[in-house]
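Why do we bother with holo predictions? Because pocket geometry can differ from the apo form. Keep that in mind while you read this record for iron/sulfur cluster.
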Amino acid sequence: MEKMNLLKEWSYTPTRIDRGYTRKTLYLNVGTPEMRIKDVSDEMIAKFTGGRGFDLKLLWDAVTEDTKWNDPENEWVVAGGPLCGITQYPGSGKSYSAFISPLSEQSYDSNSGGYFGPLLKFSGFDALEIQGKADRDIIVYIDGDEGKIQIFESPLRDVNAYTVSETLHDYFAKDEADKRNISVICMGKAAETTFLGCVNASFYDVRRKAPRLKQYGRGGGGTVLRDKKIVALVVKYSNVKGTENNPVDMDVLQKVGVKLHKEIHDFDDVQCKMRSIGTAHLNEIMDEYNILPTHNFKFGQHPVDPEGNRARIHSEKYKALFTQNMPDGCWYGCSLACAKAVDGFELKTGPLKGQKVIVDGPEYETAAGLGSNVGVYDPEWTVEANFYADHYAMDTISLGTSLAFVCECFELGFLDTKKTNGLDLHFGNKDALMELIHRMAEGKDDFALAVGKGSRKMKSIFAEKYGAPREIMEKIAMEGQGIETSQYMCKESIAQWGGYFLTLKGPQHDEAWLIFMDMVNKQIPSFEDKAEALHYFPNFRTWFSLAGLCKLPWNDIEPEDNHTRYKPQEAARVPEHVQNYVDIFNAVTGQSITKEDLISMSERVYNFQRLFQVRMQKGNAVHNIPDRALAPVFPDEWDARKEYHDAKLLEETGIDPEGLSTEEKIKKLQEHRRGVWQVLKDTVYKRRGWNKKGIPTLAKLKELGMDLPELVAIVEKYSTPEDDYC
Ligand code: SF4
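The structure, written out:
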């Protein structure tokens, strides 16, 4: 590539890390342009810990309650956290982003692997804020070796992810060996044309000699960055060492790390097989338990093929596609190594048709969302859809759920080929679905543009433009707070209704995944048990986002005696691994936290984020659940498991299904479960210390030491005494 045109340059002295923190954050306004380095106070660390906590605090300070996703003051903030970048314990390279989302119009957080978070911290920054809008396409370069921050005019006509990441690894590296010292954040064309824009983050794979991509997938963060005219954010830091975080006790860090490496070595092959299949090992498990989303979450199992074969998208199919025996970790030291890839995949469609590429994934969410949920049982199609979704920068979860909604609308007759500009979008129509994905990125076709706005906005567009019945679409569009549901069927798990729809940011499984505890193992039978789980797990999982860790090594690998040593509810927490986290946090930071402290650290940020949503929604941050998430909506959905659903109706309501029409049975079960949802919501709100509107009480804020003036003001503005539970 030709030499890029330098628009602006600043110098700085990188601060070295002490006990996990640099205590500096970098603010860049790409509109003015302006650069500032801010100090991190003791109070900021005490209240927000790091990672997502820092993101949300910085974002809160940058926006007002009227800020829209495409206002210049909206920010995309990214931070690692105090453990981010350690190399001794698997899963320690995650970074977390936050921004006002175009889909939900409130704060959203999204995490990614790859090297960006660690290299940013090693370059001297606990967090990076990007604000403003540039007047042309730009590339931001942070050089942690030289202490330089540069903004270049982007010469790249092709803004798609694989092109940009390969070009910039080449451009900024001195030689082949230097490429691993670089990480590129980049988007793609669909981040300009849709609200589903994801952010890709690279790590250089030295064996494949190519950049690989992980994603801050959800919420439309890529759309925010492209709106700011950012083509790429590049960071460079050379000669990464295992001591970069300057921990207080390297011996403990090494000892705990070795213990987990051994567990992974000994048990991964008999537990989750993350090293050979990645998270795609879930495909057949979900299918077996009837929770694999199929045809827009109507069914939980996919139909057998004409030969009676059930295993059309099971993990053995993906295992055959993934290159085996490669150390596919997305950060140094992750021996769980789940970042599987398909090598030498020849694309059959689109602008790169005929080229052989490396495809990152598919992970389970992509395999289900761009598989059974759209009625496609062809792993090679899913691999191609996965490639283009990443390349164009579309979140594969929102894309899969949005396309599934479109297919059902087509089958219901709300759409036809005239409205879709010639595409026959019945479930399983692979060619038309792939063409729609390309059109969404191209941004010229009005129907594809509507789909790219996501499920919530599609409902309005389809109703207004095509006369589609709003009431039915409200029942079947699987979204909450404007965010598409990730790929698990929750109809039969009351706790997972909460795990999806009583969340901070919408239905994403990174808060709580309780289906097995609840539906399969029946370990949390009462509402109080479910509420306890919906308090503990969202907070425990929040902690990963504060520290800068990947959740997967917590429970996708377990000590051999976990289930014999502990009672079931305790075993689900994987107590030995929780202790590992306490030990490594203390070993890095020099603090003396306990297991209980993990939860209170998280609770502070969890309640802060809840009040952020209350602020952005002006007191109206309501938790809703669509009918499709509660129970069957249509007779064919009921009849697919008729005996099961009839029995459930009798068991749950006492109503004898005998003699009732299927429509009557559906109505009665829906009414009953909506009542159950309300009881769940109240029980969870009470357990969390929130009022009837889901607003944290002043007493809760005081208990957490979060009675900060700006939070107290929000509570007082939007709560009345009548909102309190007695
Ligand atoms: S478990 Fe997988 S996603 Fe998590 S850090 Fe390791 S390779 Fe990356």
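The CA atoms of residues 288 and 322 lie 23 Å apart.
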